[in-house]
Amino acid sequence: MRHIVRGIWFLTLIYFIVYLLTPALRGAVDASQALSFVHALFGLILVGGGFLWLVLSIHRFFTR
């Protein structure tokens, strides 16, 4: 399960790198409501995963 969650998080990271480097993808997201929803969902996954990684790292640091 942990590998699946990490894989999804890395896919969202790759998506945002491609999003930043590709003007056509930015235009498609701006033009389509469905792609905007997917973009927002990926953003939540990316931010939530980063926050979870930070919290778990701090927890591991203080409990070992």
Automatic annotation (TrEMBL):
Keywords of this entry: Membrane, Transmembrane, Transmembrane helix
Residue ranges of the TM segments: 7-25, 37-56
Protein name according to UniProt: Uncharacterized protein
Species per Swiss-Prot/TrEMBL record: Loigolactobacillus bifermentans DSM 20003
Upper lineage: Bacteria, Bacillati, Bacillota, Bacilli, Lactobacillales
